[in-house]
Amino acid sequence: MEKKRGLGRGLDNFFGPQQEEEKTAETLAVDVIEANPHQPRKHFSEESIEELAESIEAVGVLQPLLIKKDGDKNLLIAGERRLRAAKKAGLKEVPVRFIDVDEEKGDRISLIENIQREDLNPMEEAEAYDTLRKKYKYTQEKIAGLVGKSRPYIANSLRLLKLEPVVKEMLRREELSISQGKLLLSVKDGREQIKQAKRMVDEGQTIAESTENTKKKTNKVKSHQGYYSYLENSLMEVLGTKTEIKGNHEKGKIVIDYYTEADLMRLCDIILGEDIDG
């Protein structure tokens, strides 16, 4: 299981020590705060907002929202869930902290806060990583360092974007777990992938049951290529990088991609089962 870093440690990278020591927050009317168009979180559970609203009614908003001035606009960088709950609780003002950041840094702060609070569903998380990769040309290693995850974790999260749209929507609604989503990547036929995903949801399968059923379905595929696809996905799951099996059942080769010298060393450590730099 990935070890979470404490909330705020990742944000230390964006604020100097003097700013971090400042505890006094300003207040701002809730109706003048505008939502962040780059907010990675798209789905907000009404039940979760209601629970937070009850907490806010009892003790108030304990952590200031992060706001960026954009002309005469007050753009919300982090804290949309708190803002929604504060409105539901009937608050007219909330504590805020104004920060001066560019769009790139604002996107990074928003992502870090959501990741550290475990606020994102698997697809929102994958799409947020993909945005950083495409919009700012971040490598998987840089994203991993930014959010306190391993590179294989980032690679496997991004692979979820290859699933069928219907299956991705199930992940977005959290009807499927991220582990079930990874299992479904081994099912190359789109219709069969959707069929298996619906069965997982309808039957309320555990991850162990989903794993067994997916393996059975894969093993029923008569062509070697179907089985090789399953093996490729299994290898990618372990190695956290693109892997291809080329050849037939008698001979061939396994091609494993790496992107930096550090990535090569990481893969060697996994394959050899030891730290080759040690």
Automatic annotation (TrEMBL):
The keyword Cell inner membrane does not apply. Residues 26-115 form the ParB-like N-terminal domain. Keywords: Chromosome partition. It comes from Aedoeadaptatus acetigenes. This is ParB/RepB/Spo0J family partition protein. Pfam families: HTH_ParB (PF17762), ParB_N (PF02195). It comes from the Bacteria. Residues 1-23 are annotated as: Disordered. The keyword Transcription regulation does not apply. CDD domains: SPO0J_N (cd16393). Belongs to the ParB family.
